[in-house]
Amino acid sequence: MTMRTHRWCVAIAAALLLAGCGGSGEGGNGKAVALSKEQVRETLPDGEAMPGWKESARPTAVQMDKLYRSQACPIKGNAGCENSRFFGASTFRHDDNAATVTFLVIAYDSEQAAHAAYDVLWDGYYGKRAGQKAKAFEIGSIGDERDARFGTSGFLGEPGAVTQTRVGTVLLWTETAATDKGGIDEEAVRDLAAVLAERARQAQNGDTPSAGLDG
Prior knowledge:
Number of helices: 5
Structural class: alpha+beta
Mean pLDDT: 87
Strand order of the largest sheet: 1-2-3-7-6-5-4
Low-confidence stretches: 1-14, 16-30
Order of helices and strands: HHEHEEHEEEEH
Helix content: 25-40%
Shape: globular
Largest sheet: 7 strands, antiparallel
Distance between the termini: 27 Å
């Protein structure tokens, strides 16, 4: 993952800020529920959930429209964004190891829509975000569907990783990178993906998301 990727992650979160300033999830009826814009924002980790990290762009959610479909689903015809409702992002940096992570969420109107978009977006775009030589790795049994790749695509072998997870009606991503070779590893990426997935599960269960990294 190159430094250009770092800038892309921050740019997406910054764009959302400008526009929006101001296991499977199940509701009480046993079915996965569509999240509101506020629930999408709450799903994104905040400073309290990320001890040791600093916010670069605070959690923000926006209603999906033509502009945000082009950012969230940047493939032909914005495929993968069908029946999407909201798009959210937050970005953090870790000064100790020169790492950055961007959390992304697309909320759909049904579990079927999220499932239909999963392979479209992973195969068509997000699965390539860690570089051409990135390798798949396991992130555990989080969510209903999950994928992850870890690569060293920078000119100096800088590490980068991307995870994609579906929890009920939402698709979730972590995009992680570091300027130092030891800045991130698979274990750290797993922890970040697990926090995001658990917060999505809590939101779909009607609870206030509270999952976070261990301090």
